[in-house]
């Protein structure tokens, strides 16, 4: 199960990087957020929640713990970043694809930090 948790974490890094570059591409083209992009953002948050649930299961069922307690903070931040960004820009006049693209790249970085503080690397 620990191996699955690690593989999903690496997948989250790659997924959020791809979604981030997709958002930047939409922003450069001055396109609005497409339904596909919106779905990709929702899928990313759902993957983060699934990863957290697997982590809680591992915490309860396995004797080992992450090497640093910051692991929990980074994991929670991956889940909470998009909803916080959405609530912040709801009344702002900004390029939404640009904001969500940058937020997704930020979340890829958070996922990397979660991996390193988890003791896997």
Relevant terms:
elongated; mainly alpha; 0% strand
Walk me through this protein's architecture.
This protein is mainly α. It has one domain. Helices cover 79% and strands 0% of the residues. The chain has 4 helices and no strands. Helix 1 (2-28) packs antiparallel against helix 2. The mean pLDDT is 91.
Topology:
Elements: H1 2-28, H2 35-61, H3 70-89, H4 96-117
Helix pairs in contact: 1-2, 1-4, 2-3, 3-4
Condensed summary:
The chain is mostly helical. It contains four helices and no strands. The protein has helices at 2-28, 35-61, 70-89, 96-117.
Query: Which regions have little confidence, pLDDT < 50, spanning 5+ residues?
Result: none
Structurally, the number of domains stands at: 1
**SSE class:** mainly alpha
Morphology: elongated
**SSE arrangement, N to C:** HHHH
In helices, the fraction of residues equals over 70%
Look at the structure and give the mean pLDDT.
Answer: 91
Instruction: Provide the β-strand percentage band.
Output: under 5%
Task: Give a count of the beta strands, DSSP E runs of length 2 or more.
Answer: 0
Counted by DSSP, the helix tally is 4
């Amino acid at each position: 199960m620990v191996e699955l948790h690690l593989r999903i974490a690496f997948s989250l890094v790659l997924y959020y990087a791809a979604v981030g570059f997709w958002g930047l591409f939409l922003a450069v083209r001055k396109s609005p957020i497409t339904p596909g992009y919106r779905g990709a953002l929702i899928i990313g948050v759902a993957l983060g929640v699934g990863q957290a649930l697997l982590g809680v299961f591992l915490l309860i069922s396995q004797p080992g713990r992450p090497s640093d307690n910051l692991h929990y903070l980074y994991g929670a931040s991956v889940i909470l970043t998009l909803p916080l960004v959405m609530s912040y820009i709801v009344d702002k006049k900004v390029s939404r694809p640009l904001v969500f693209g940058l937020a997704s790249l930020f979340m890829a970085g958070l996922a990397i930090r979660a991996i390193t503080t988890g003791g896997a690397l």
